[in-house]
Specification:
Belongs to the cytidylate kinase family. Type 1 subfamily. The chain is an alpha/beta fold and about 200 residues long. The chain is about 55% helix and about 10% strand. The structure holds cytidine-5'-diphosphate (2 copies).
Length: about 200
């Protein structure tokens, strides 16, 4: 029987890190749903119309390292407010969640809209400063020329847009377990998440 883990939260909270580790630990498949919106955003930067791009999205479009840039993240959050863009991406996400071997999906609306019946819902948070510091570190490691202040402003702007939109806003599901990772190492956050999933499985 399929088992679904929904992981939501703001930018750089640690969703991806936790999702990958939980998927590896339990042998589940993992879908980073942010990549869907990033892929649409990248197509819009290249001149496409958002709804057309979302409807034509191909899984191959997700395998692109260039989706990880701050400019694409901004474009992603801009297309993500459009109801029709979100609607075009629902079926792919739900069919991924239905995989028999179990699935972890991470994003903003997994526990609330995409998989409201998920077996485990985690809402991962951390202070904006913490999250910006992590993202700044990642970008610096990649050689991207930016400042902590720029990254913090970007993270705050995206959070505000994600939380205030009418279509599937970023908000914890009523039955989500909150995990604040501000004072946790990545390994500690992963261990806490695995514990929650283990408890739900037994
Ligand atoms: O997927 P999301 O944007 O929520 O975050 P991520 O890409 O998983 O994590 C952003 C960065 O924070 C990564 O470099 C992690 O190693 C680091 N980090 C973490 O994820 N969790 C902690 N408790 C501490 C650091
Ligand atoms: O890694 P990070 O948390 O910075 O961003 P992401 O998960 O790749 O998502 C990029 C943007 O896509 C977000 O700021 C949201 O606007 C949008 N998104 C969404 O609306 N719904 C999702 N399920 C996933 C992402």
């Amino acid at each position: 029987m399929s088992f679904v883990v929904a992981i939501d939260g703001p930018a750089a909270a640690g969703k991806g890190t936790i999702s990958k580790a939980v998927a590896a630990h339990f042998g589940f498949a993992h879908l980073d749903t942010g990549l869907l919106y990033r892929a649409v955003g990248a197509k819009v930067i290249a001149g496409a119309e958002p709804i057309v791009a979302a409807r034509a999205l191909d899984p191959v479009d997700l395998e692109n390292e260039r989706l990880r840039t701050p400019a694409v993240a901004q474009a992603a959050s801009e297309v993500a407010v459009i109801e029709e863009v979100r609607a075009a991406l629902v079926a792919f996400q739900r069919s991924f969640a239905a995989r028999a071997d179990g699935a972890v999906l991470d994003g903003r609306d997994i526990g609330t809209v995409i998989c409201p019946e998920a077996d485990v819902k985690l809402f991962v948070t951390a202070s904006a400063e913490c999250r910006a510091e992590r993202r700044f570190q990642e970008l610096s490691d990649k050689g991207t020329d930016t400042t902590f202040e720029t990254v913090l402003a970007d993270v705050k702007q995206r959070d505000a847009r994600d939380q205030s939109r009418a279509a599937s806003p970023l908000i914890p599901a009523d039955d989500a377990i909150l995990l604040d990772t501000s004072d946790l190492t990545a390994a500690e956050a992963v261990a806490a998440a695995i514990k929650v999933v283990e408890a739900a499985r037994s």
